[in-house]
């Protein structure tokens, strides 16, 4: 990001307007998530799905507008690391839940 | 200051890619992500093990959570404004925005410490149940990261005072802290969604 001479400098470290767009989107998504929980208008599983989707979208908004992740070739290694980590954490969390749930069922502790 | 001497040596590693320092810090953040991933997995497994103690539904309240979230989110954008000022070499503005970010982050940590103290005072400390152990470990690890970020912000503010230009090395430090600070905000999104909101349904 030491882009003193790159042509796409505005893209890689952001401008006031891109930060404000990201901030407004983040505020809207946060308020929606809080509202969904506070209003109790959806079923419990529906609420969890809604909160999860809102959280995922907000994480993407932050990655794009605040961490300036993009598909540019100068970011290839960053993106590769990121994809590896996300895949690792996803396998880790889903695997943990699966194994522990399975154990609990077989041990009849639930 | 010591880092001013590096201005002359910073010329040779100018290239089209970002600094290797920033990439190295990015790799560190990814390992941090794995730490938080494992703590989230622990919490997800233990989230219903109350052992007769209070559940999240009884402990958490939306207003305090909303205030904490707002402080952290606003501190993200104020840090962003600081980075924009840094790219324009406006050092007094950078220090001002870093100061605002510091105060917002301090408010966040203060609210969290207050919440923890209140919970422990009510007998809902980390020793009460597996759910509370996992909760305190996860949320306090995030709070500890924010506290380290606060120390880092003060350090950079002190280093920036009295300088007239931002050398590349200083810019790298500011960029790394920017990644760190925005990363913590992303972790907080997951915390308020899966720890607090999911427990309040």
From TrEMBL, chain A:
Keyword Metal-binding: no
Subunit structure: Heterooctamer of two A chains, two B chains, two C chains and two D chains.
Entry keywords, A to Z: Cell membrane, Electron transport, Membrane, Oxidoreductase, Transmembrane, Transmembrane helix, Transport
InterPro entries, alphabetized: Cyt_c_oxidase_su4_prok, Cyt_o_ubiqinol_oxidase_su4, Cytochrome_c_oxidase_bac_sub4
Gene Ontology CC entries for this record: cytochrome o ubiquinol oxidase complex; plasma membrane
UniProt family annotation: Belongs to the cytochrome c oxidase bacterial subunit 4 family.
Pfam families, A to Z: COX4_pro
UniProt record, GO biological process: aerobic electron transport chain; electron transport coupled proton transport
Membrane-traversing stretches: 20-39, 46-65, 77-100
NCBIfam families assigned to the protein according to its UniProt record, in alphabetical order: CyoD
Name of the protein this chain belongs to: Cytochrome bo(3) ubiquinol oxidase subunit 4
GO molecular function: cytochrome bo3 ubiquinol oxidase activity; proton transmembrane transporter activity
Function: Cytochrome bo(3) ubiquinol terminal oxidase is the component of the aerobic respiratory chain of E.coli that predominates when cells are grown at high aeration. Has proton pump activity across the membrane in addition to electron transfer, pumping 2 protons/electron.
Main location: membrane
UniProtKB/TrEMBL annotation, chain B:
GO CC annotation terms, alphabetical: plasma membrane
Source species: Acetobacter indonesiensis
Gene name tied to this protein: cyoC_1
Signal peptide: none
Transmembrane parts of this sequence: 21-45, 65-82, 94-111, 131-158, 179-197
Protein name: Cytochrome bo(3) ubiquinol oxidase subunit 3
Subcellular location: Cell membrane
Subunit structure: Heterooctamer of two A chains, two B chains, two C chains and two D chains.
One example of a Gene Ontology biological process annotation: aerobic electron transport chain
Ranges of residues in domain Heme-copper oxidase subunit III family profile: 1-200
Topology in the lipid bilayer: Multi-pass membrane protein
Family of this protein: Belongs to the cytochrome c oxidase subunit 3 family.
Keywords linked to the UniProt accession: Cell membrane, Electron transport, Membrane, Oxidoreductase, Transmembrane, Transmembrane helix, Transport
Gene3D superfamilies the record matches: Cytochrome c oxidase, subunit III, four-helix bundle (1.20.120.80)
PANTHER family for the chain: CYTOCHROME BO(3) UBIQUINOL OXIDASE SUBUNIT 3, CYTOCHROME C OXIDASE SUBUNIT III
Its biological purpose: Cytochrome bo(3) ubiquinol terminal oxidase is the component of the aerobic respiratory chain of E.coli that predominates when cells are grown at high aeration. Has proton pump activity across the membrane in addition to electron transfer, pumping 2 protons/electron.
GO function term, MF aspect, one: cytochrome-c oxidase activity
């Amino acid at each position: 990001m030491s882009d003193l001479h790159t042509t796409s400098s505005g893209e890689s470290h952001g401008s006031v307007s891109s930060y404000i767009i990201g901030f407004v989107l983040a505020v809207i998504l946060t308020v929606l998530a809080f509202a969904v929980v506070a209003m109790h208008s959806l079923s419990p599983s529906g609420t969890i799905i809604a909160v999860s989707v809102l959280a995922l979208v907000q994480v993407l908004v932050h990655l794009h507008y605040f961490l300036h992740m993009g598909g540019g070739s100068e970011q290839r290694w960053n993106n590769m690391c990121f994809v590896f980590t996300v895949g690792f954490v996803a396998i880790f969390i889903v695997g943990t839940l699966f194994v522990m749930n399975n154990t609990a069922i077989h041990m009849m502790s639930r | 200051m010591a880092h001013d001497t590096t201005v002359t040596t910073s010329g040779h590693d100018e290239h089209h890619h970002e600094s290797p320092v920033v990439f190295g810090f990015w790799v560190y953040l990814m390992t941090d992500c794995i730490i938080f991933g494992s703590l989230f997995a622990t919490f997800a497994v233990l989230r219903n093990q109350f052992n007769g103690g209070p559940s999240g539904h009884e402990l958490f309240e939306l207003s305090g959570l909303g205030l904490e979230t707002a402080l952290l989110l606003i501190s993200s954008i104020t840090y962003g404004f600081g980075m924009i000022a840094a790219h324009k070499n406006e050092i007094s503005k950078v220090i001002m925005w870093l100061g605002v970010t510091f105060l917002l982050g301090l408010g966040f940590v203060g609210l969290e410490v207050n919440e923890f103290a209140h919970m422990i005072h009510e007998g809902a400390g980390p020793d009460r149940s597996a759910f509370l152990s996992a909760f305190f470990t996860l949320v306090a690890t995030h709070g500890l990261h924010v506290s380290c970020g606060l120390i880092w912000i003060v350090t950079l503010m002190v280093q920036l005072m009295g300088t007239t230009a931002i050398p590349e090395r200083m810019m790298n430090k500011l960029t790394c802290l920017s990644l760190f600070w925005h990363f913590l905000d992303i972790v907080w999104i997951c915390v308020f969604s899966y720890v607090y909101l999911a427990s309040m349904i």
